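Repro:
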Amino acid sequence: MIPITPPLKSGDRGPTVGNLQEGLMFLLENGLAQSREERRQLTELLRTELQGLAYSNGTVRTISLLQERNQLQVTGSVDVITAEFINKLLKELGAFETRLETSAFVIDGKVVSKRAGVEGLRVVIVDRNVGEATSTSVAETTTRDDGNYQTTFVIPEVSRSGKDQPDLQARVFAGEIFLGESKVQYNATHHETLNVFLTAKATLALPSELETLTSSVSRYFNGNLRDLQESDQRQDVTYLANKTGWDARAVALAALSDQFSARTNDAAGTAQIEAPFFYALFRAGVPANEAAVYQLTATTATDIWKQVRMWPSSFSKLQLNAVWTGQRSPVSLL
């Protein structure tokens, strides 16, 4: 635990909120609560909010209680005066002593892939020791839509292993399939960022980026992506980007890809070039306009598709009847 840093208020999120909640639970155990039931209720609320590092009702109630019982202005928020008072109490109670068994660790980071979706991946935080078999799993969480993750935990065993500080690493899995790992952060502090960059080989086991993006968007929009608009009257792309956490450019490219695909429909209404193929071209840097796209030769387009492999992961072999430069010609992607 480290000193509380103001200002903090309802709606805030992050490691500083988690640190505050750890401090409040410590105070509840050491005299702030005036009954066993009050301590139980408030601690339960704080633990729930600590999981998401969110300043919500439980934190507001506990701060308000502390302020009321110590003749501070009751706001439910942590200003400079409230933070100084809390830090004084925690210091007097020995909460800032360098004892890892009473301290929380906050680890965040991002799983990054150039070609695949990174939502819902399993992230395991381990404390590394000599030899793989002696590494200890200390926390587990999953990635959000954009690949970001965060977890809070304590390591009661670290001092007994002969170390003053843990040596932390993030390991990433799709189910039980190992995908990659971060560098080891030796002598980790109580807040570290561990990013994981997935190799092209690892991403073959994952859904494509477009599949993951489409899945995220479908929670808020059930229509065709090609119908999205971005104008003074409608800001569909901006809305979906903000709701899902995806980059607005990626959402826009997904909509354009669906538009381009629809233009290749045959008489039966079946797309001859599916949206993922256009999305792959655009993500590879091809300008999203017909003049630029159809200046490419079929061979060049095929080479890009083979390199980026961003079409749906369920396709292992595909015979694409390409409509390219106004002519119909089969392009093999084997």
